[in-house]
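DM from R.C. (forwarded with permission)

"hey, sorry to bug you on a friday — could you get me a structure for this? deadline for the figure draft is monday and I only need the backbone to look sensible"
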Amino acid sequence: MNGYPLNASGESFGAVQPGLAEPDLIKAFGVDRVVGYVRRTDLQEPQPESPWIAANTQARDRDIPLFASDGMTAISKFTITGFRADDRRCASRYYS
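My reply, with the result:
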């Protein structure tokens, strides 16, 4: 066992623990503050084919399903917030 509990499908789930590999289902808060799990693989994006594609896709928000610990029951959604180079909230950390 990898230090995380396993669901009936054999998937590990829980909050990421220092010193351990990430579980299959990572604990997260949904858009409506519901606690659930996102698939580690859903958090990853394919490598963009060009810098232009990277710049345009990284700026978009992306929703992925939020599951119960069984990894099958969708209970909400989790939003991955895109990076915006012109976002003043990000820039203010560096220039205030």
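R.C.: lifesaver. The longest strand covers residues 74-80.
me: no worries. The chain has a mean pLDDT of 83.
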